[in-house]
Amino acid sequence: MTVTIKDVAKRANVAPSTVSRVIADSPRISEKTKQRVREAMKELGYHPNFIARSLASQMTQVIGIVMPSSADQALQNPFFPEVIRGISKAAHEKRYALQMSTGEKENDIYERVVEMLQGRRVDGVILLYSRQNDKLMKYLQKHDFPFVVIGKPHQKVEQVTHVDNDNVQAGKDAANWLIARGHERIAFVGGNPQYLVTVDRQTGYAAALQEAGLPYRSEYVVHAEFLQEGGQEAMKELLSLPEPPTGLVVADDLMALGILKTLDEMGLGVPEDVSIVSFNNTLLAEMSRPPLTSVDIGIFQLGYEAAKSLIEKITNQNEPIKRIIIPHRLVERGSCAPH
After folding, report:
1. Among residues 142, 245, 259, 334, which is most buried (max CB within 10 A)?
2. Does residue 169 sit in the same domain as residue 291?
3. pLDDT grade, residue 81 (50/70/90)?
4. Domain that holds residue 128
5. How many CA atoms, within 13 angstroms, populate the side-chain half-sphere of residue 49?
């Protein structure tokens, strides 16, 4: 015997229209009523026809995730699996599926996402990055398509819902940690300067030096990819200087891992010769040797809040623009020592 919405409504003692709204996860229905209806659905073995529902409502119940580069490269960095885990949790709670879009180059990513949107394959997208003059973000704004950015938008910040950390303060905190331990020659190893996260952390680093009366030395600022190889290249460049730094602010744990490897190959010890403060506090920071002092930026929460905010935008066109700041904290481990 086929179980219908009417059967569920009878069991839960509600109107059939209420069951439909519960299936659509309408915010107008109380959590108590939703729970009662879901229990009735479970008892009767009723499974909503989500395909029919999406066709009727012209909604796909799918969120698009846009990576900053190819999945092969991006997923080497533990930041992305963890932020996607947060997105997935929020999406699962609201019965949304995920679709990922990647590309080797910026133009590839742009074209694939535009195809995704024009084909109505997703209801909204989350950008896992924020870069300067991003044409994809401009396209999304122009066509009034629901999207959320993880990071700080380059322009029109007040017009874009975004989830971010206070990366200026985080960069400052990281540099101050080394300054407080007597380091004066402190370098900054950042990612691509096109990304706002790199710019903000570098700004905080520079502010900490200025407040401490230390010189800002351009040769101490190196940019590389957010990968282990990027860290290795950056460290070799810094060690070739007449006065190599004794302390490093490194914008990513994976880059810091490459730096540890390079220092070890050159017979230098951490923290005996060089102290390191990293970012993200991924499992790599805990498992590296020595374990890395790292700034925890709440990666899972960044993803969770981004997906939650996007679904709110999708289901309510009048949802206001939000700026959500996830707190950060510095986790002390063994990669720093007094100079």
Report:
1. 259
2. yes
3. very high
4. 60-163+298-327
5. 9
DSSP summary character for residue 246: S
Sort residue 213 into left (φ over 0), alpha (ψ -120 to 50) or beta: left
Residue 159 DSSP one-character state: G
Q: Give exposure, 138-153, as e/b (b: 16+ Cβ within 10 Å).
A: eebeeeebbbbbbbbb
Pairing of strands 329-331, 293-296: antiparallel
Question: Would you call 2 exposed, middle or buried from its count of C-beta atoms within 10 A (0-12, 13-18, 19+)?
Answer: exposed
User: Mean pLDDT throughout 251-256?
Assistant: 93
Phi and psi, residue 65, nearest 5°: -115, 125
Q: How many domains does the chain have?
A: 3
Q: Is the dihedral of CA 14, 19, 20, 24 positive or negative?
A: positive
Tokens of 175: 């540099």
On whether the CB atoms of residues 302 and 315 are closer than 8 A, the answer is no
For residues 79 and 279, the answer to whether their CB atoms sit within 8 Å is no
Pairwise CA distance, residues 96 & 62, whole Å: 5
Give percent above pLDDT 90 in the chain.
67
pTM: 0.82
DSSP-assigned beta bridge partners for residue 190: 223
Residue type present at position 57: S
Give residue for tokens 């073995």. 45
CA distance 98 to 295: 29
**SS3 category, 296:** strand
* Averaged pLDDT, 100-125: 84
**118 and 10 part of one domain:** no
In a domain, 337, yes or no: no
Quick one: 283 and 235 in the same domain? yes
Q: In 3D, which of 135, 79, 81, 142 has the Cα closest to residue 105?
A: 135
Most confident stretch, 24-28, 32-36, 81-85, 97-101: 81-85
Identify the pLDDT of residue 230: 83
